[in-house]
C-alpha cells in the first residue's frame, strides 16, 4: 500500500507528525488510531533495541564475545531501522530488515552458545518476532517468518548433539538470565498482543451491535442474534404515520443532487429524533416519504396519542423550512417482521398501512389527515375538525378528519 494515513489527532506533536508520514501495511492498516500505529512501531523497535543491547552486554560480561557482539549489532540495526522509519514513514522496509537481522542473530547466538542445551532458549525469541511481524506487516509476512524459524528449529534439533559437543558449557548465570529474559519477553509480548486482539474483537462486536441496532429495533435485533431469525408477529392495534413532501419531484428536477440529499437528510434527521422522543419506530424512507409506527415492536395502548404528537411536531419542525408536508395517520392491526436474509429491514404489512398511505396521499399540504379509527382513539385528547368523506381507490368513500392539536394547547 502506498497511501498515507490520515491522522485524526493533531499533527502538532511528534506522534501526529509521524502518523502523517506513516505508510500503512496490511497489518497496521487494521489499526484505526494513527497514534497507536506510531506508538506500536516505536515501542517495538526502540524497546527491542534496549533489550538486545542489555542481552549483548551481559553475554560479553560472561565471556561470550561472538554472541555478545552480534546481539549488540542487532541493537544498532533496530535503531537504524527506526531512523529509517522516522525519516521516510515507511514500515515495510524497516520491518523486513529488522526481521532478517533478528533471524540471523537467533541462528548465530544459538550456534555460538551450543544449541538448545546451553543457549537458555534464546531461539524462542522467534515467537515474539512472528507476533510483531503480524502486527506490523500482516499475516503473510508473519507466516513466512514462522516457516523459516520452524525449518531452522527442526534442523537445529538434528544438530543439537554436535553443537553441544563443540564447546564447554557456558556460564550458568548467563543461561539462567537468557532463559528468564526469553520467558519474560515472550510472555509480555504475547500478553500485549492477546489483550490488543481481545480489545479489537470487543470493539468490532460493539460496532456490529451498534450497526444492527441502527437497522433494527433493539428487541428485534436481540431475537435475531439469539435465534438467527425473527418470527413474524401480529399486532392488533398500532398507528402508522406517513409524511411526504409536496411537489418534491417537480421542485428538484434538474437540481444539484448534493443539495437535494443534504436537505432531505437534514429534515429526516429531525424526524428520526422526534420518533425516538415519542417512542415510535422509524420504518423506512422512500425518496421524499417518511414512514413511522407507534406500537411496534412493543405493543402500547397509547399508540394513537403518541403518533398524533409525533405528527404535530413533525409538521411544526418543517415550518419555515424549504419543504411543505402532507401527513396521514391510520390505526389498526398489522403484521410486523424482518424481510430478507441480507440488508435486514423491519417492516409492517396490512390494510392499516395502505390506508395510512392513502391518508397522506389524499391529504392537504401543511395538514395532518387522520382516519376514523385514529380519530376515535384520540378525540378526547386532541382537537380534530371533520373534513368529510374522500374517495379512495379500492376503498370507496372514507370519513376523515384533520388533526389540529392537543386539547387546551
Question: What does this protein structure show overall?
Answer:
With 409 residues, the protein is α+β, with helices and mostly antiparallel strands. It has two domains: 14-211, no CATH class; 218-406, Alpha-Beta Plaits, CATH 3.30.70. 57% of the residues lie in helices and 17% in strands. A hairpin with a 2-residue loop joins strand 2 (281-286) and strand 3. Helix 2 runs antiparallel to helix 3 (65-88) and helix 10 runs antiparallel to helix 11. The radius of gyration is 34 Å and the shape is elongated. Mean pLDDT is 87; it is low at 1-12.
How do you describe this structure in short?
57% of the residues lie in helices and 17% in strands. The protein is an alpha+beta fold. It has 2 domains: 198 residues, no CATH class; 189 residues, Nucleotide cyclase, GGDEF domain (Alpha-Beta Plaits).
Amino acid at each position: 500500500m502506498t497511501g498515507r494515513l490520515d491522522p485524526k489527532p493533531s499533527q502538532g506533536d511528534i506522534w501526529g507528525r509521524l502518523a502523517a508520514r506513516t505508510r500503512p501495511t496490511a497489518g497496521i492498516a487494521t489499526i484505526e488510531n494513527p497514534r497507536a500505529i506510531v506508538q506500536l512501531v516505536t515501542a517495538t523497535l526502540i524497546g527491542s533495541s534496549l533489550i538486545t543491547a542489555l542481552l549483548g552486554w551481559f553475554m560479553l560480561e560472561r565471556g561470550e564475545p561472538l554472541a555478545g557482539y552480534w546481539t549488540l549489532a542487532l541493537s544498532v540495526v533496530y535503531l537504524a531501522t527506526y531512523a529509517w522509519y522516522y525519516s521516510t514513514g515507511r514500515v515495510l522496509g524497516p520491518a523486513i530488515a529488522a526481521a532478517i537481522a533478528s533471524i540471523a542473530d537467533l541462528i548465530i547466538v544459538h550456534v555460538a552458545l551450543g544449541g538448545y542445551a546451553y543457549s537458555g532458549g534464546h531461539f524462542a525469541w522467534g515467537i515474539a518476532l512472528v507476533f510483531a511481524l503480524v502486527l506490523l506487516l500482516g499475516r503473510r509476512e508473519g507466516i513466512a517468518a514462522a516457516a523459516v524459524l520452524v525449518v531452522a528449529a527442526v534442523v537445529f534439533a538434528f544438530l543439537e548433539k554436535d553443537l553441544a559437543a563443540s564447546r564447554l558449557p557456558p556460564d550458568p548465570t548467563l543461561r539462567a538470565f537468557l532463559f528468564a529474559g526469553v520467558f519474560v519477553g515472550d510472555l509480555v509480548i504475547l500478553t500485549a498482543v492477546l489483550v490488543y486482539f481481545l480489545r479489537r474483537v470487543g470493539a468490532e462486536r460493539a460496532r456490529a451491535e451498534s450497526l444492527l441496532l441502527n437497522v433494527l429495533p433493539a428487541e428485534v435485533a436481540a431475537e435475531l442474534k439469539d435465534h438467527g431469525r425473527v418470527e413474524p408477529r401480529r399486532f392488533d392495534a398500532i398507528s402508522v404515520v406517513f409524511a411526504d413532501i409536496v411537489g418534491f419531484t417537480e421542485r428538484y428536477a434538474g437540481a444539484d443532487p448534493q443539495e437535494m440529499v443534504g436537505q432531505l437528510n437534514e429534515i429526516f434527521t429531525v424526524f428520526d429524533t422526534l420518533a425516538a422522543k415519542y417512542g415510535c419506530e422509524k420504518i423506512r424512507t422512500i425518496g421524499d416519504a417518511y414512514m413511522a409506527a407507534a406500537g411496534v415492536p412493543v405493543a402500547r395502548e397509547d399508540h394513537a396519542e403518541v403518533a398524533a404528537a409525533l405528527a404535530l411536531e413533525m409538521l411544526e419542525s418543517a415550518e419555515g423550512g424549504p419543504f411543505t408536508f402532507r401527513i396521514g395517520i391510520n390505526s389498526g392491526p398489522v403484521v410486523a417482521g424482518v424481510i430478507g436474509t441480507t440488508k435486514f429491514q423491519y417492516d409492517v404489512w396490512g390494510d392499516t398501512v395502505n390506508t395510512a398511505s392513502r391518508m397522506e396521499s389524499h391529504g392537504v399540504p401543511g395538514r395532518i389527515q387522520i382516519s376514523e379509527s385514529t380519530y376515535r382513539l384520540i378525540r378526547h385528547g386532541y382537537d380534530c375538525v371533520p373534513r368529510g368523506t374522500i374517495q379512495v381507490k379500492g376503498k370507496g368513500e372514507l370519513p376523515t378528519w384533520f388533526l389540529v392539536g392537543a386539547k387546551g394547547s
